[in-house]
Amino acid sequence: MAKKSIKKQQEEAEIRLHTAYMNRVADLLQSLPTFAKDADESEWSALDTGKRLYTEQDITDMQNKAIELYYTDPGARGIIDTMVNFVIGSEAHVTPVDENPKVKEWWGEFCRVNKFDMRLKELVRRCFRDGESFLRFFKNKIRRNVPLVRFVEPDKIKDPQGKHSYGIEVDEDDVEDVKAYYLMNAKTNTAKRVKADDIIHTKINVDSNVKRGVSFLVGIAKYIVKYGGWLDDRIQLNKIRAMFNMIIKVTGISPTSFGEKFDDVTGKSQLSGSIAKKKVPKSGSVLVSTPGVDYEYKNLNVHAEDTGKDGRLIELQVAKGTNLVEYVVRADSSNSNYSSTMVSESPMVKMFEAWQDIFKEPVKEIYTKVIEIGIKLRRIPRGSSTECEANFAALIHRQIKDETEAYVLQILNHIVSKKTISEKFGYDYEAELKQIKKEMEEESDAGYKGQNNDEE
Questions:
Q1: Domain residue extents for the chain
Q2: Which residues share a beta bridge with 138?
Q3: 336-369 CB burial, b ≥16 within 10 A, e <16
Q4: SS3 annotation, 6-40
Q5: What is the dihedral of CA 188, 193, 197, 199, to 10 degrees?
Q6: What distance in Å separates the CA atoms of residue 159 and residue 56, rounded to the nearest whole number?
Q7: How many CA atoms, within 13 angstroms, populate the side-chain half-sphere of residue 58?
Q8: In angstroms, rounded to a whole number, what is the distance separating the alpha carbons of residues 363 and 87?
């Protein structure tokens, strides 16, 4: 049989090379991990149902998916943590209206025993993540009955008998008048009735006559997941781009004998005619040219330079749904100006201020409950005020000198009290008065002693 022409052999070799390339691409795509393939949007539908009212199962599914997303996706976790940091900050504190030292001592003891500063941050985080939080009061027989508070997982609030929807018992004529909560015991399929006075329930993103809250991630989860999928696709494109580091064309000599000089990719021969999958020589190797052998380095151009804009557009959808500015969502300030976004007129600042007003209410509820317990246990006098001032982090960089001058004028004109101004700056007015008095006495004593020394 006549030998094939060199041109024909080269054409067949090119076909086999192309086939091998396509098979390699198919193998790579087949081996992609699940998260790098197209996301099954139905998996996250619990966070994108867009309902006004959710069933009890909807609430459970939504919260489970929100928790999963928070702990597995850096974008979701970053958004929730950012909300907590801006709303609460490091300067949050509660100031009792009652000036009785015993009241302040009782509240301070409660805060120390319960690590209230950290628990407050957790309350806000749970609300943004789960859509609600349940904080239960317990008796504490060890520390002079200082009440203990612990969080109850939302999926535990359920009435297995189905008499009270969402596990919350309300007045039959007023859904906002809560009578009790039912804490589910999965082992016995029974529930314990807990009086509403013992639980502080905080819910967000729903109307006042809706029993359970909705996660902050609802509506934006889809785009958070899409961005993760887009990023994984970009990683795979880079892998495909560098799939073949080098192609060796062999003509005039046996490809089998030449191919044996290189290690197989899988450890065993994969020769198919003149096509083989071989390992690239190690860095520093010297390739000696052989007659009939051509070395060609390949760099696949997939023309995907403009897809970076797509990623930004996806994250901008998240920014729209949260009122957070772009640099907060993307952790990239190249398209933003910090000084122009953190001003009093900024929509983001207004949004944080609104959330601060919302979360001041559960803080005041907790304070009132603690004071009422203190009165009942006779730790503080009867008639003690149950009112307090909840102060959260200042959102705008303060011009202390200008503010102080303005406040001094207001004090001189009897527009505002010194106590109010002191609290606006985050100081404990009573404690500061004592410290000022002590320092003045020390300075007076030092001056008196210095005068006596001069006379001597």
A1: 32-155+165-174+196-244+298-397, 400-456
A2: 148
A3: eeeeebeeeebebbebbeebbeebbebbbebbeb
A4: HHHHHHHHHHHHHHHHHHHHHHHHHCCCHHHCCCC
A5: 20
A6: 10
A7: 16
A8: 13
The closest alpha carbon to 98, from 289, 434, 381, belongs to 381
Question: Encoding tokens for residue 349?
Answer: 């600042």
pLDDT tens for the 456 residues of the chain, in order: 455 566 676 667 667 766 666 666 566 555 555 444 455 556 667 777 667 788 999 999 999 999 999 999 888 899 999 999 989 987 788 989 998 999 999 999 999 999 999 999 999 999 999 999 999 999 887 766 899 999 999 999 999 999 999 999 999 999 999 999 999 998 898 999 999 999 999 999 999 999 999 999 988 888 888 877 777 777 776 666 665 556 666 666 555 555 566 666 655 544 444 455 666 666 656 666 666 667 666 665 655 555 667 777 777 777 777 777 776 777 666 665 555 555 555 788 888 889 999 999 999 999 999 999 999 999 999 999 999 999 887 776 556 677 777 878 888 888 888 888 777 776 777 778 888 888 888 777 666 555 555 555
- Tracing tokens 């600042």 back to the chain, one arrives at 349
Copy the structure tokens of residue 52. Answer: 């006004």
Q: Locate 155 and state its tokens.
A: 């999926």
